[in-house]
């Protein structure tokens, strides 16, 4: 499995654990005010990261490109900024943290655009972007 796939899958599992923990915290406390953050942790952290990992596992030539690692790093930084801030804003009632949520969201959006570029780039583009074969 390509390294970037493994990174995305491992990150996905971390967010699955955090999403389950957030859900349990809401259920135990009876306060479901942070349910949008819980949904974002599960959807962006767990599901989307796993899908990215699956895509790269199925497309190892694209996974070997440096842009795949940039995609991983940017996406992960974005969700690490956005999700805790969103949870804190909703669960603890801190609307002043919304600009941090916005910054994280913009970073995530940039990473998604990079992924779109990776998906729509042709195999020829992938080959030419990697090391040229020796003659």
List keywords for this structure.
135 residues; mainly alpha
Write a brief structural summary.
This protein is an all-alpha fold and 135 residues long. The chain contains 6 helices and no strands. α1 (3-29) packs antiparallel against α2 (35-58), α1 runs parallel beside α4 and α4 runs antiparallel to α5 (98-120).
Largest sheet: none
User: What Rg is obtained from the alpha carbons, in whole angstroms?
Assistant: 17 Å
The helix/strand order is HHHHHH
How many helices in DSSP terms?
6
Organism: Mesorhizobium tamadayense
Transmembrane segments: 7-28, 40-58, 70-90, 102-120
Keywords: Membrane, Transmembrane, Transmembrane helix
InterPro entries: Cyt_c_oxase-like_su1_sf (IPR036927)
Describe it for me?
It comes from Mesorhizobium tamadayense. InterPro entries: Cyt_c_oxase-like_su1_sf. Keywords: Membrane, Transmembrane, Transmembrane helix. This is Cbb3-type cytochrome c oxidase subunit I. By secondary structure, this protein is mainly alpha-helical. The protein has one domain. It is 82% helix and 0% strand. It is elongated and about 50 Å long. The protein starts with a helix and ends in a 6-residue tail after the last helix.
